[in-house]
Amino acid sequence: MARPKIALIGAGQIGGTLAHLAAMKELGDVILFDIAEGTPQGKALDIAQSGPSEGFDAALKGANDYADIAGADVCIVTAGVPRKPGMSRDDLLGINLKVMKSVGEGIAKYAPDAFVICITNPLDAMVWALQKFSGLPANKVCGMAGVLDSARFRHFLSLEFGVSMKDVTAFVLGGHGDTMVPLVRYSTVAGIPLPDLVKMGWTTQEKLDAIVQRTRDGGAEIVGLLKTGSAYYAPATSGIEMAEAYLKDQKRVLPCAAYVDGAYGQSGIYVGVPTVIGANGIEKVIDITLEGEEKTNFDKSVDAVKGLIEACKNIDSSLA
Ligand code: A3D
């Protein structure tokens, strides 16, 4: 059986890391596509030359022509620009919306059966626009943010508790922006919810609140340190986790930006919700019960996403 084909649209910091991870995990053959000439070809050659030492079997190719993504099983989209210190994700909307249009048209023409994972910011609005521009079924187009935001939350929690990250589960829902919603009640250490761990004296409410805020600011913290761009190792790893769930029909329960049609009292938008990812793409949106402040915060986050979607419609009338 032929290996799956993984098309990476955008061969920048995240795109290159995605390619390396996909090859090392032998998820399939990799096409790195970018408008910059030489960059995808150079990265593909460099990563291919890590194969003999790493011992993977995967073909890598760089491309500047969408025809090269033909028949891709998975497309992961990072094309566009990242933010710099002082910028919010929303500041990228105008420029990255134009990029989504060309990417959507390229995918529609050459890879209409692919499972598409968007990573370009501002995430929830860009994945909404990408689905519209590509015309692919909504269950085959999703955005990566919740896996990353939850991984950041899990990392900070594991440091606080001094336990393995493997035993910390966490859910961050809502839009991928300043209003994201780390769900304390649904986050656990080996099944013990965080509020119980506060009662057990493992941490204090103040420390937990600070971790929640650090999670919300997780992207900005790295932008501030790097100064020239945004995070890419953990974002790429999160994207690969989602691609693997699809390619191997794992039925993973992962938070991601999915098309919501009825769940959470919302419809017609993309926002971060728990989903099941398997061979049919987003196979299910899990509609968990939100209470009190959780619901207020989620609704606030949804409003922020809706504002960005309206901004997209104002910029490009074909989306209205
Ligand atoms: P970067 O290293 O600049 O790579 C972007 C690549 O896109 C560059 O190689 C560009 O040449 C290429 N590009 C630009 N326009 C086009 C086009 N029209 N067609 C094809 N390629 C094009 O950025 P990065 O890899 O660090 O980040 C990529 C995106 O991911 C940015 O929008 C970031 O804000 C976003 N990001 C999202 C998350 C989430 O959790 C959602 C996390 C980190 C970064």
Automatic annotation (TrEMBL):
Biological process (GO), any one: lactate metabolic process
Sequence positions that bind NAD(+): 10-15, 34, 96, 119-121
Matching Gene3D superfamilies: Lactate dehydrogenase/glycoside hydrolase, family 4, C-terminal, NAD(P)-binding Rossmann-like Domain
EC numbers on record: 1.1.1.37
Domain Lactate/malate dehydrogenase C-terminal: 148-312
Keyword Oxidoreductase: yes
Cytoplasm in keyword set: no
UniProt: substrate binding residues: 83, 89, 121, 152
Origin: domain of life: Bacteria
Domain (Lactate/malate dehydrogenase N-terminal) ranges: 5-143
Alphabetical keyword list: NAD, Oxidoreductase, Tricarboxylic acid cycle
Reactions catalysed: (S)-malate + NAD(+) = oxaloacetate + NADH + H(+)
Molecular-function annotations in GO: L-lactate dehydrogenase (NAD+) activity; L-malate dehydrogenase (NAD+) activity
Active site: 176 (proton acceptor)
InterPro entries (alphabetical): L-lactate/malate_DH, Lactate/malate_DH_C, Lactate/malate_DH_N, Lactate_DH/Glyco_Ohase_4_C, Malate_DH_type3, NAD(P)-bd_dom_sf
NCBIfam families reported for this sequence: MalateDH_bact, PRK06223.1
Free-text function comment from the UniProt entry: Catalyzes the reversible oxidation of malate to oxaloacetate.
Family in the record: Belongs to the LDH/MDH superfamily. MDH type 3 family.
HAMAP family: Malate_dehydrog_3 (MF_00487)
Protein name: Malate dehydrogenase
Gene name as annotated: mdh
